[in-house]
């Protein structure tokens, strides 16, 4: 009985399987419409229900495998591209033949997946019951594995090699600007992505295709990079690199896997950018420097973006631009050196020499500002305001600006020029804009204390000679300096302004005093500016030698009595070298109002009672006026050798020498009613004056350094030598960069004066002595 039932069961399975196998073949033949899927499902259900799931599963495997072998033989292999020795045949393989092969493969794949979906529906019960319990792939997955092993990785036919070759050749053709059918390539890529490599636990796309694609791409771009570098200039090369990157990005978007995008991008960046960084930057007539020189903002922006993709790209750009700024700065500094060499070729320093020096100083600052504007423009328009580039630019500017030892003086002179009255063609707003830019240069100065000394001198002359654009502009500049350096930096500058304001009020009170008093009023209008000696940069404690005329002496005595009566305990010293006077002179042609310095007034008044033909010798003027010799020569030059010759000198010449004679020039003519006799104001210092300034700065630095040491030690009580040096340097850096040797000397001086002592156990440790 059992054998008969067994034979019946076998017979029933065989009948059901034959019908099912035939149905699968009909599906493969695209005749699914003639089948009853409900009946086929029931047959498969019964087979699994009667424990024949393994036979059913293996039978399905065999039918599908057999079908795929036939497909490989009858459809795929005949579609192989023609390959031969000739280049025309190879071209055919790469072009139309390859496209046809992919088209056939696409059709085969789509047919197979469609059939597998139908087969899966029929065998759904087997998937749910047998496949899961037996731990075997579901039917659809089985179909994919069979397609992978029988078609894509066929051991009988070289389908895999042809497929990969065709795909790579199609991509190559597209890179060479040929038109290809992307839909067929995408279908093949999708197929490879859907097929999995069980051992690698990854897609067949990743294991079979991607590696070869990246390898061939690297070689392709390696060769192209070498070729383009030889053929193109820098802008053209970068455009081609940009185009290649966009093309690869589009290629990924259209038919490659997204996982390939960073890999292919990295290859293009490595082969076309990283390996040719310096070559592109240094290309003659078209590299980075020519782009900067010609302000090619689009090309610079493209280079910034492309080079930013690779590790050392921006670093190479920063280095090249920084070196270029230093070179340009060196050229600007050399113009100063050349001018200085010309100016010092002779032994004397005339007014003309100083005027030339001033124009050199102003031109130097303007050149630096123009250079700064140029690279600010590059930073804004091409470099996306990259802070790393800005830092590199600032370091380059700081380097060459501090290479010019006169930069603090030059920047102060430039500010002085912009803040003077009579500045042509500039509104207050324009002047303020220039000063803002100048503050930027001020930040780069290492020796800010030297700048402060020069700025005080120039400000003092502007205030005393009334040459400022406006008080608002002056105070605005001091406000900018206060923001940069703090209150201490500008305390004395603000004190100078305060003196000027108080002096105005004092003169109002003096005039009221003269009107109310019974004293005889002076025959001249006296205006006095009282200066606090600690605020102003000049030595106000000593009174320069000068014999005033009696009327002026009387007026000064009247003011002095008035002032000292109001301010007991104070002392006034008259600074004859700093004043000015308005006098009326009568010439043969007409009268003129002449603005002169106090020294020039004293000299001219000596000619008042002389007959026109009578002269005064240099020695006579010197003896009667008692004006210091250097100042006397300078003022006689202004009166007898400059534009307006109020005096005539014998013998003629530009230099004032002992023995010279001077006549009043009664034949002097000028169309202007009011004349200003120019004196040397804010001009570039001579070497002797600069040496004197430097000595004063060094002396001031000693006191500042000692004050910093005491301040630190008072707070810390005990400190190691190196730590103290570092802390002092940090505190003084906003004003100047101290030399460690100088700090050490100041420490020794403080030890001698018993502010500090060396620790008994360690001579490199200091203790503070209260």
Automatic annotation (TrEMBL):
<dbReference type="GO" id="GO:0080090">
    <property type="term" value="P:regulation of primary metabolic process"/>
</dbReference>
<dbReference type="InterPro" id="IPR001373">
    <property type="entry name" value="Cullin_N"/>
</dbReference>
<protein>
    <submittedName>
        <fullName>Cullin-domain-containing protein</fullName>
    </submittedName>
</protein>
<dbReference type="GO" id="GO:0010468">
    <property type="term" value="P:regulation of gene expression"/>
</dbReference>
<comment type="similarity">
    <text>Belongs to the cullin family.</text>
</comment>
<dbReference type="GO" id="GO:0000278">
    <property type="term" value="P:mitotic cell cycle"/>
</dbReference>
<dbReference type="GO" id="GO:0031461">
    <property type="term" value="C:cullin-RING ubiquitin ligase complex"/>
</dbReference>
<dbReference type="InterPro" id="IPR036388">
    <property type="entry name" value="WH-like_DNA-bd_sf"/>
</dbReference>
<dbReference type="InterPro" id="IPR016159">
    <property type="entry name" value="Cullin_repeat-like_dom_sf"/>
</dbReference>
<keyword id="KW-0832">Ubl conjugation</keyword>
<dbReference type="InterPro" id="IPR036317">
    <property type="entry name" value="Cullin_homology_sf"/>
</dbReference>
<dbReference type="InterPro" id="IPR059120">
    <property type="entry name" value="Cullin-like_AB"/>
</dbReference>
<keyword id="KW-1017">Isopeptide bond</keyword>
<dbReference type="GO" id="GO:0006915">
    <property type="term" value="P:apoptotic process"/>
</dbReference>
<dbReference type="InterPro" id="IPR036390">
    <property type="entry name" value="WH_DNA-bd_sf"/>
</dbReference>
<dbReference type="GO" id="GO:0031625">
    <property type="term" value="F:ubiquitin protein ligase binding"/>
</dbReference>
<dbReference type="GO" id="GO:0007165">
    <property type="term" value="P:signal transduction"/>
</dbReference>
<dbReference type="Pfam" id="PF10557">
    <property type="entry name" value="Cullin_Nedd8"/>
</dbReference>
<dbReference type="InterPro" id="IPR016157">
    <property type="entry name" value="Cullin_CS"/>
</dbReference>
<dbReference type="GO" id="GO:0005737">
    <property type="term" value="C:cytoplasm"/>
</dbReference>
<dbReference type="Pfam" id="PF26557">
    <property type="entry name" value="Cullin_AB"/>
</dbReference>
<dbReference type="InterPro" id="IPR016158">
    <property type="entry name" value="Cullin_homology"/>
</dbReference>
<dbReference type="GO" id="GO:0006950">
    <property type="term" value="P:response to stress"/>
</dbReference>
<dbReference type="InterPro" id="IPR019559">
    <property type="entry name" value="Cullin_neddylation_domain"/>
</dbReference>
<dbReference type="Pfam" id="PF00888">
    <property type="entry name" value="Cullin"/>
</dbReference>
<feature type="domain" description="Cullin family profile">
    <location>
        <begin position="406"/>
        <end position="640"/>
    </location>
</feature>
<dbReference type="InterPro" id="IPR045093">
    <property type="entry name" value="Cullin"/>
</dbReference>
<dbReference type="GO" id="GO:0043161">
    <property type="term" value="P:proteasome-mediated ubiquitin-dependent protein catabolic process"/>
</dbReference>
